[in-house]
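Researcher: Quick test of sequence recovery. Tokens follow.
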């Protein structure tokens, strides 16, 4: 569930510069290994992954970690049958650019940590 407009949060990831490249690599690896498609709906994105190997565990760990550093994003992880896992990510209007950057990370080539 995203933060409400009544209780705004800072739209900034609190992950430090040392840990950020590893997190971006984790996200990119999940994308390369299992991302099937992304659906956009307003301030919500649904990422569908193949439910193979340890993808469920990796997504659960990612969501837990992201909840610690990106409180402005809301996450929901669910199974869609036996073959798919859906990660729903949503935010408020102020967080849309950060949401899009987060989702883009799943499509980043290996070695690109997203920094300029």
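Model:
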């Amino acid at each position: 569930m995203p933060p409400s407009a009544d209780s705004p949060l800072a739209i900034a990831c609190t992950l430090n510069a040392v840990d950020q490249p590893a997190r971006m690599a984790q996200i990119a690896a999940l994308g390369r290994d299992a991302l099937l498609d992304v659906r956009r709906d307003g301030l919500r994105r649904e990422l569908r992954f193949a439910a193979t190997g340890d993808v469920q565990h990796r997504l659960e760990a990612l969501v837990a970690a992201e909840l610690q550093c990106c409180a402005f994003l809301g996450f929901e992880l669910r199974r869609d049958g036996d073959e798919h896992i859906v990660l729903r990510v949503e935010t408020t209007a102020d967080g849309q650019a950060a949401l899009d950057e987060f989702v883009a990370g799943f499509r980043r080539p290996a070695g690109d940590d997203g920094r300029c």
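The chain has one domain: 20-107.
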